[in-house]
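User: quick one, sequence for these tokens?
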């Protein structure tokens, strides 16, 4: 959840936002965001790179006072766990607050000209939404019509639920056939198919 009156709410952070970087340092693992914030002080200004509904932008956020609870400025996309009643220290308070902001986030770059963000699902951390975050100019992906914000759901009629499976299936298909068929889902829920060649 967003803490009422906390830093996230005050600076426009919304539930289901995903932090990609803190002060231009990428956040790739589930605990990296908490670790980066834990070493900062209340009142410090941090620059967050945020992904929201297919868009990426930056937002400066002033960290709140942990004593008041506003240090828990993270957005949440799942059910929050109860905070400890009497944390031993400010650092301990951050470690014990488990925002689902810390959902696993992984990134992959593909030779066909696109990048993917794998965002773990709130209901199952072992399964991921595979969202295209960047299309390179003049690439095969651009020529075939792939767009940022599309979610890859299948490769050659095989369902994909994590980044490693996606990489493996694409590599195998390109090696054997020199092409690969993607099933995607657009942001409005429509399904499409794109065949990309090496």
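Assistant:
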């Amino acid at each position: 959840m967003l803490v009422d009156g906390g830093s996230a709410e005050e600076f426009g952070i919304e539930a289901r936002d995903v932090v990609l970087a803190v002060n231009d340092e990428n956040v790739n693992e589930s605990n990296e965001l908490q670790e980066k914030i834990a070493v900062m002080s209340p009142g410090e200004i941090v620059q967050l790179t945020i992904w929201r509904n297919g868009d990426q932008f930056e937002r400066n956020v002033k960290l709140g006072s942990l004593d008041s609870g506003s240090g828990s400025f993270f957005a949440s996309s799942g059910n929050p766990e109860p905070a400890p009643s009497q944390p031993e220290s400010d650092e301990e308070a951050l470690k014990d607050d488990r925002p689902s902001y810390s959902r696993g986030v992984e990134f992959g770059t593909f030779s066909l000209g696109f990048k993917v963000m794998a965002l773990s699902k709130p209901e199952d951390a072992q399964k991921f939404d595979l969202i295209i975050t960047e299309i390179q100019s003049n690439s095969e992906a651009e020529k075939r019509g792939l767009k940022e914000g599309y979610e890859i759901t299948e490769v050659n009629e095989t369902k994909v639920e994590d980044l490693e499976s996606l990489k493996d299936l694409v590599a195998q298909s390109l090696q054997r056939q020199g092409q690969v068929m993607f099933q995607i889902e657009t942001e409005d829920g429509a399904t499409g198919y794109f065949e990309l060649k090496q």
